[in-house]
Amino acid sequence: MDRILRLSYLASLPLGQVGQQIGMSTVLIVDDSHTLRQMIAEILQSNGLVVIEAINGVEAKGKIQSEAPDLVITDLIMPLMNGYELCRWIKTDPHTQNIPVLMCSTKSEEFDRYWGMKQGADAYMTKPFHPQDLVKAVKQLLKTRGKLLS
Questions:
Q1: Which domain holds residue 62?
Q2: How many domains would you assign to the chain?
Q3: Is residue 150 part of a domain?
Q4: What is the pTM of this model?
Q5: Mean pLDDT of all residues belonging to the chain
Q6: Is the peptide bond before 69 cis (omega within 30 degrees of 0)?
Q7: Terminus-to-terminus CA distance in the chain, angstroms?
Q8: pLDDT by residue (tens digit) across 104-132?
Q9: For residues 103 and 141, is the Cβ–Cβ distance under 8 A?
């Protein structure tokens, strides 16, 4: 009976909190492309991570405030609030400043990478990327934060 109550309790929680309850890391993917969010989500879920999604920085900000993820992967060019602005907000807010941010964009110039890191990004990856490179970067950032469970 306790197991049924526990499952019922978990089913009532937002997805990110379920991951925390059962010891899994939660990653927030922020991208205005449904296809890219879905592709990244499938890669991460197949590697044992819980994924939540947002279509722009404004939606991501709300999700971070309600259920802080262990890592944020963000595109740069999005409507309402771009990835640079989102990263700057995450890194200047005392409640969220320790959440690692991986910028993932088609913008591949050295200046774009420099500007992303200047906003506080912990890593920068250009699209297209190899799935194993994404998984490696995510695991490294989670390990650095102390949130990766083997």
A1: 2-145
A2: 1
A3: no
A4: 0.80
A5: 81
A6: no
A7: 29
A8: 877 767 766 666 677 788 988 888 888 99
A9: no
